[in-house]
Amino acid sequence: MTEQPEKRWLLPLFAVVILIYFVSESFLRQATVARINPAAVAMDEILAGLPEPIRKKVAFRVTLLQLQNNLNNAGSPGSKAAALQSLAIFHETEKTGEHMPYYREVLTNYRNEPAAYPVYIRFLFEPEGQNEGITVEAFHEYQKKLPVEERFYAWTSAYNKLRNLEDEVSPNADRIARFLEPLSEIPDPPFLEYAPLFTELARFARLSGRIELAEKATKLADQCTYKRSISEFLMQQEEDRKYRDELENRKAGG
pTM of the prediction? Predict the structure, then answer.
């Protein structure tokens, strides 16, 4: 029987698609490793010309190569921790099953780095045997070592995760109060944004019958009213950095 014309095109078309895939991936790999601006190599145009299943595979490979390249170029411990967790999150999101080695490397080699706090949040409140040793006590000790702004982000992220795990109507007040209790040890809250955390501590401490802790948290929340915001703090840091750089440049040029 004579083969229908449209069927005769299937094999050449398939071959062309595969060729485009490998050529595109090779091209993008070189661009990624060379740290070329994606816009300069028209990645969007290349990907747009591919069938959707192949386009997804190429996009996956490009992202993975970029993340691996970031890790290879990371110099400081903090940047390595950040690059490793980016790879972990990518693999976990894509469900490749390859995320745990990256998380574990952060916890093994960069456990005390400020950049590691999202990994702490990832495993905090997980069941024993699945938490990689990140207990509530471990988090409480870790947060003490963080810079002031990172400490706030870590507390906020951790609290949001805990509230999502608790029943919305009748949360475990004692559990929440005990988790937030170390906040009451901050003698002078540094930022305005801490106020909601202290307010929550006061609320759940009162619900769990710990009136003294509730009153202390309420006073700390009131103190936050007179504090600067984190954005103001970061802006001041940036201005100070620019001023120091300017002084250094003047010394170098003078």
Answer: 0.74
